[in-house]
Design a protein that fits this description.
The protein has 604 residues and is of the alpha+beta class. The chain is built from 17 helices and 20 strands. Strands 2-1-5-4-3 form a 5-stranded antiparallel β-sheet, sandwiched between helices. A 5-stranded antiparallel β-sheet has the order 7-6-10-9-8, sandwiched between helices. A hairpin with a 5-residue loop joins β3 and β4. The longest helix is centred in the C-terminal third of the chain and has 43 residues. Keywords: Kinase, Phosphoprotein, Transferase.
């Protein structure tokens, strides 16, 4: 009996142990599945206990138990460690709930975010003896949250920076949301000026039906677009193009309308401008003396402007009309074959122009014309006709001849003048130099074109010229800086003074640089320098001698004043006169000395 009782007790104990292992296994599985671990700190014994779930989160071997408190805090990310310790201290001292979110560093260096909750166990003196808690790995949730926040921020940034108006309108037509671009379009100072207002109040009454149509269609689940005008809060009218789509909730019920609207005022203005341009072009085409016509592959007239119809009618001897042949036999076989050859070249696919010189059959005056031939192709690329344009260049040819003659005169002046004309880049590189460079500085045109201005500029003048090149670029196009003198090295090695005027023509398509006109002023500079030197010497002589002259002059004036008093005895008066004569002689000697010195400074 006793044995059976013991067997029963052992069986019961075994059952309890088995049940405990089962619960422990379930706990481990739950911790693993939920990425949870539990922990406790014994403040009396200063020990720390981690469950297997904690070790798994930290990627540590559970056999490394027990773990001390220092190791536990070392697993906390350095940037969060002080905050975690302060939170623990505050929990223990004030009794607030332990609720901490921080980062941990695993043994492999990974960073994981966890949230930890814990309860403090206190003794009868309310002293903390133990804290028991759990923490969960929420890294994936945090990363997903951050990703979602970034996506939301990205979307919000796109909407906020979107140049088109994005708005949400309630089924009743009340404005619920609108981005900054939309607020700007309706001239609102801020959302408070617009949100909660009816959108229809902003629509031009003449276009209200168009806006209402896309709003109502969106409420029916239909996407649509239209154009309408709005009148902003400050009275500005704009043309808008809007696309409206339905916005539904999770159950599929349409709760509002999303609209994307863009300002097409410029587009509408351009379209209206194109219509006006088209009408103007039609008027210009028929008002020009140029001939414009097109023909099909059978040489029959498709369309033409009035001047061409007048010419071909005159040549045919009868009024021309669409469908008539553009080949005319009445002007002779040579004329017929020449124009037939032009048309055949164009209809074969060649795009070209010709030059025609002839006596006008109408005015009997000589005319010069450029005639252009361009094939007309259908969408499949097949040639179906020919577009022709005859441009009257009679006046242009006359002006061209005048220009050629003028250019010859100009070149003769440039080549034989005393001024050098150079076109420089902004860095001082020569782009053009007139032939007179040889006469002024001895260099050939070829030599000068391979040189930079600074290659033969006097070193002392380089800073001033750099400054002038910077200044000329900042003045308006076509303007010039005041003339300036500087030194350039002659081909023979001597330094020559030149007077230069530079003009900003960098944006002139025919010039594209800084134009420098300069000529040799070396002799003039030397003469001016000599005169200035002479003047300085004369000033020095005059200043010096004036002090010498004043001494005998002062004596003379003093003696005269003394004699004029009448108080001198005859003997004293005689001596005073002797002194007066001596002072006069002294003054005369000084004057002669000044004259001699002045003669020595005169430049021969």
């Amino acid at each position: 009996m006793k044995k059976k009782k013991n067997d029963k007790i052992e069986s019961s104990a075994s059952s309890v142990l088995g049940q405990g292992n089962k619960h422990e296994l379930i706990l481990r599985q739950m911790e693993s599945l939920a990425k949870i671990g539990h922990w406790d700190v014994d403040f009396v014994n200063q020990t720390l206990h981690w469950s297997e779930g904690v070790f798994h989160i930290l990627e540590m071997d559970p056999s490394s138990m027990p773990v001390d408190l220092e190791t536990g805090f070392q697993s906390v990310h350095p940037d969060d460690r002080e905050r975690a310790m302060l939170h623990m201290k505050e929990v223990l001292e004030t009794g607030i709930a332990y609720d901490l979110e921080c980062r941990l560093i695993t043994t492999t260096g990974k960073i994981k975010t966890i949230r930890s909750l814990a309860d403090v166990i206190r003794n009868e003196k309310n002293e903390p003896v133990q804290i028991v808690g759990i923490f969960q790995d929420i890294t994936e949730q945090r990363e997903a949250y951050q990703t979602l926040k970034q996506q939301e921020l990205r979307l919000s940034t796109i909407l906020q920076s979107e140049p088109e108006c994005v708005k949400v309108v309630s089924p009743e037509g009340i404005l619920v949301e609108m981005n900054p671009a939309g607020l700007q379009m309706i001239e609102a100072n801020g959302p408070e000026d617009a949100l909660g207002q009816k959108v229809e109040d902003l629509v031009n009454p003449l276009d209200l039906k168009f806006y209402q149509s896309i709003h109502n269609r969106a409420l029916q689940g239909i996407k649509s677009s239209t154009r309408f005008r709005i009148i902003g809060l400050k009275g500005t009218e704009r043309w808008m193009e809007s696309t409206a789509v339905p916005l539904a909730n999770q159950t599929g019920e349409i709760t509002s309308v999303l609209s994307v609207t863009r300002d097409i005022s410029d587009k509408v203005i351009s379209e209206e401008k194109l219509i006006r341009i088209k009408r103007n072009q039609e008027a210009l085409i028929n008002g020009t003396t140029d001939l414009i016509w097109s023909l099909d592959s059978h040489f029959c007239l498709i369309a033409a402007n009035k001047p061409f119809m007048d010419v071909i009618g005159y040549l045919r001897g009868t009024a021309a009309k669409e469908g008539d042949s553009v080949l005319i036999m009445s002007q002779g076989e040579a004329f017929y074959e020449k124009w037939k050859g032009y048309y055949e070249r164009g209809l074969s696919g060649e795009c070209f122009k010709t030059y025609e010189r002839f006596l006008s059959p109408i005015t009997q005056l000589e005319e010069h014309r450029e005639v252009f031939f361009n094939p007309i192709r259908n969408p499949d690329g097949q040639i179906t006709g020919l577009a022709c344009f005859s441009k009257d260049i009679t006046d242009l040819m006359a002006k061209r001849m005048e220009l050629v003659a003028s250019e010859k005169r100009y070149r003769a002046l440039v080549e034989n003048g005393v001024d050098v004309i150079a076109i420089l880049s902004t860095e001082g590189k020569a782009k053009y130099v007139s032939p007179s460079i040889t006469k002024v500085l001895g260099y050939t045109e070829s030599d000068a074109m391979h040189m930079n201005l600074f290659d033969f500029l006097h070193p002392d003048d380089v800073p001033k010229i750099i400054k002038r090149l910077e200044e000329v670029r900042s003045i308006p196009q076509g303007n010039s800086l005041p003339s300036h003198n500087f030194r350039i090295k002659h081909q023979n090695g001597s330094w020559r003074w030149v007077e230069s005027t530079i003009t900003n023509l960098t944006e002139d398509e025919n010039i594209g640089g800084i134009v420098d006109n300069f000529h040799d002023v070396t002799e003039r500079v030397f003469q001016i320098t000599a005169i200035q030197t002479q003047n300085e010497k004369l000033k020095a002589i005059a200043w010096t001698q004036s002090h010498v002259v004043r001494n005998p002059l002062a004596k003379i004036m003093g003696i005269v004043d003394l004699i004029k008093t009448g108080f001198l005895s005859p003997e004293e008066e005689r001596k005073s006169l002797d002194h007066l004569i001596e002072s006069a002689k002294e003054l005369d000697s000084i004057i002669q000395d000044i004259v001699l010195k002045s003669q020595r400074v005169i430049v021969p």
